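The following record pairs a protein chain with its ligand, 5-amino-5-deoxy-1-O-phosphono-D-mannitol.
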Amino acid sequence: MCGIVGYIGSNDIKNFLLQGLKELEYRGYDSAGLAVIEKDSMQVFKAVGKIKNLEEKTKDFKTKNFGIGIAHTRWATHGKPTELNAHPHLGEFSYVVHNGIIENYKELKTELEENGYNFISQTDTETIVHLFEDYYKKSKSPFEAFEKTVSKLDGAYAILLITKAAPDTIFFAKNGSPLIIGKNEKNEIFFASSDAPLIGYAKEVAYLEDHIYGYVNKEGIKTFLEKEEKNLEFKPLTANKELAQKGGFRFFMEKEIYEQSRVISETMMGRVKADKIEFEEIEEGFFTEIENIKICACGTSYHAGLSASYLFERLSKIPTNVEIASEFRYKEPILNKKTLFIVISQSGETADTLEALKMAKNAGLKTLAICNVDNSSIVRMADRTILTRAGIEKGVASTKAFATQMMVLWMLSLYLAQKRATLDKESISKEIDSMLHIPKVLVVETSLHEKIKRLSKRYLHGHGFFYIGRDIFYPLALEGALKLKEISYLHAEGYPAGEMKHGPIALADPELFTIALMPKNLLYDKIKSNVEELSARDSTILAISPLEFDIADDFIKIKEYNHYMLEYFEMMLIIQLLALEIATRLGNDVDMPRNLAKSVTVE
Ligand code: M6R
């Protein structure tokens, strides 16, 4: 996801900005840029690709005096990763950098264009700088203009804006996307999207809350909330960079589990409207004449695909078939041009998935990638892409990428249901209401995490784990078993609960751990009978359900919801935390488990 840094002071501005951007590289990006106002001169540099390209472009640019600067790494959401779309975006006399998505940018842009403003990028961000300048021309007060601009923006943003109209001031605003202000005893003030760029520079930092805006200049920092001045709470800054990148969590995987609530909001942003789903990246006619769907993927992405097949059939009434990419490649599949071919991949570089995609393209199928990395090989090859917007995922065990894939797939099944009129308006609105609740479901409550930590000590041995579920909870069971296997090295299998009696139940004894996914809203009585059968044969049961279940040895209660997808997402969180805590107790390297690579670029 995009990253921001900013600086005001008399030290080497360019150096801080470039070093800061490097510290934010872990967030993922495809272009970068910076703008500086020193004395009266305003300079901007942008480059596609790595920070070193920006370094190269700025090598003859020196900063020595008092000045202000803003910089940005861009992870493309609106528009391709090009120099024109890279930040900072320029108006006539101001520059802006922005992390997030301005949901109402189209309306604002139309209005500005009608008033004679020319847009040169495809981004939502450019709207901010023109809007600011438009208000400034009317009020002649840069702060008033900025305050008014911010009040017009819907969506998520962390914004830094500089302008020749106030050449010693940085304006800032924050809502939904992270922004931190740091300061030191030398009267330097810093901005960044996370702690890491500030370590070694700032002594104290304040983590801005949503809806805060204000400005910094030589006199200091002024912050406001709803037009009232508000003081910030500064805390000392840690000196440990790695800890800062992990945001205080023990592992990247843990951090990524905790990030799910936030990134899923980004996945939905601009796509989930009050009564419909929209995908700006796909034109109206793309899905016409599609009679069925085939999904290909590997590992966790395959589990997302398998889960999606239940949604595509249930909600959009499209026959859907899912295949593991490495199997698909060599089976001489019969492909039909009326099939929409979907590939799902976090990295966009998985060799088997890429090869499957090539086969589908060569056979003339319409292809759609659901991917987390823009400009990756899969994205470049597919006809269309929906980006999942999870931000860079560092833990080898995929967590937030899976959550965002599932959200995209759920949105897509509803989008197709709209198009094909397989659900009435009321049902679509109900689905959307549930969808909008997911960020809340994914907030990790301390009591839940503590409970899982405690429980984990009872699951460190045994001769195996069965994760069981029915319907869409079956692929979730597969995912639970994969998470545990990958990082704990314990044997685990996912099974459709109804299949247990066809063989696997022979393994049941107290040393066989059954993790039972028991949603209230989907086939509760059926899964209950399956779990009872296992309990009668003395398997140790850990039940996850909103409904009390007496015969379980251990029980994790989820909240009562009225939609199975809310149960799905909460259970997903629980199985991720369970794997994390078991692996941690076993002393394993959670982020880099043995024998595994984050991106599998060989077959
Ligand atoms: O990048 P991709 O989504 O294409 O990767 C597919 C699998 O290699 C990946 O999901 C793998 O199974 C993860 N380690 C799961 O946690």
